Fold this sequence. Notes:
- The structure is a single chain.
- The chain is an alpha+beta fold.
- Helix content is 26%, strand content 8%.
- It has three helices and two strands.
- It has helices spanning 21-33, 56-64, 96-99; strands at 67-70, 79-82.
- It has a two-stranded antiparallel ribbon with strand order 1-2.
- The longest helix is centred in the N-terminal third of the chain and has 13 residues, at 21-33.
- It is extended and about 70 Å long.
- The N and C termini lie far apart (49 Å).
- The model has no long low-confidence stretch (mean pLDDT 84).
Amino acid sequence: xxxxxxxxxxWIKSIFHAHEIPSVRRGYEVYRxxxxxxxxxxxxHFRHLVHMLYPEKRVKEIAATFDVxxxxxxxxxxxxxxxxxVDAFPxxxxxxxxxx
Length: 100
């Protein structure tokens, strides 16, 4: 039998449990101030920050600072609105072609 690598227990429940909370908060602030101009976090939703990094009230405030494209409305038009916690972080680009 070939030797097998040792098995180590990993206690990671989510991406936020793997790190110290103040470090993750600093990382989010760096992303928000520096990286968000070019890079997207569209796989994460604002709700992922609730109770992990910030209280729900603060997450609602953070989400409201972003304009989210929603719709269509009654006339079939897309419109922008303030973000809410169920929204994903918006992309800095309007579409995938502009991102390239």
